[in-house]
Amino acid sequence: MEHLISNIQRFSVDDGPGIRTTVFMMGCPLSCIWCHNPECITGKRKLFNDSLKCAHCGRCIGTCKNGALSVKDGDIEVDREKCTGCLTCVSACPTGAMSVTGREYTKEELIDTLMQDEPFFRKSGGGVTFSGGEPLLHTDYLLPVIKDLKERGISIIFDTCGHVPYGRIREVLPYTDAFLFDIKGMDKEKHMENTGASNEIILENLIKLSRDGVRIFVRMPVIKGANADADEIKNAAELIASLDNIAEADILPYHAYGTLKYARYGIKMCHRELVAPDTEELISYRNILEEHGIRAVIKNL
């Protein structure tokens, strides 16, 4: 398995306490219909076609030996079935309109890159967050990295969907300060429909993790047309209230920031209309959680 990183995002303020640097690992066991990082789902390098940067010079078309590139409505179109990922078009493109997402770092390179932000971590109480995709698919690669960072006094957080063998969570526990743990739905059938997988392992892992004594920030994406439902929130609240070591529950309203990515990576979007609940609904969900004694925060309200 390749350990590809799609992005290293500096100055993150929504991925845990303080100023953090977030590492987005590629590959995920879920395929959520609202995913805003769809390039991270498969774990393979992705050709990114940015028409806004295109100079319409045609050099990319001339280098493609598979006939995967053509002009449609004045823009370069990629036939993803013909594209073999040879990336000759990336080398030929003079403007960066054709680029590739997915880079391998040696462990030493990654540590050196992350340690460049140490002054910001120290001043803000921040650190490094591993996200994705699903970072816990890469524990064999990340373990030496987080051990090294921990020895340097850097805070470590994992942002996880929870759909992994619990042994992978246990591996990183000694070096992890907190988990951002997603609850994407309580109804098993709806969860399967929305994410492509059951929620049984996820909820079992959340219960086990709560008993292992590490801080947990539960994250609850809420999307009209998918999982925004008062009963779902109530059922989640009952579970969360029964657990230990829950720092807070974060309500994450749907946003469409990743919409353009689907077209530029050639990924099909969900056919359903997905929108954020209105403010009144979000407040009602927060109230349900608070009525169960849970500290609840609506993000980006």
Provide a brief overview of the structure:
With 301 residues, the protein is an alpha/beta fold.
Task: Provide a descriptive summary of the structure in words.
Strand 8, helix 5 and strand 9 form a beta-alpha-beta unit. The mean pLDDT is 95. The protein has helices spanning 59-63, 88-92, 107-115, 118-124, 139-151, 166-172, 188-195, 200-211, 230-241, 259-265, 279-291; strands at 4-12, 20-25, 46-49, 69-72, 75-78, 98-101, 103-104, 127-131, 155-160, 178-182, 215-222, 246-253, 296-298. The strands form 3 sheets. The protein has a 9-stranded mixed sheet with strand order 7-1-2-8-9-10-11-12-13. A two-stranded antiparallel ribbon has the order 3-6. The chain starts with a strand and ends with a strand. Helix 3 (107-115) packs across helix 5 (139-151) and helix 9 runs parallel beside helix 11 (279-291). It contains 11 helices and 13 strands. It is α/β, with parallel strands linked by helices. It is globular. It folds into 2 domains: 4-43 and 103-298, Alpha-Beta Barrel (TIM Barrel); 46-101, Alpha-Beta Plaits. It is 33% helix and 23% strand.
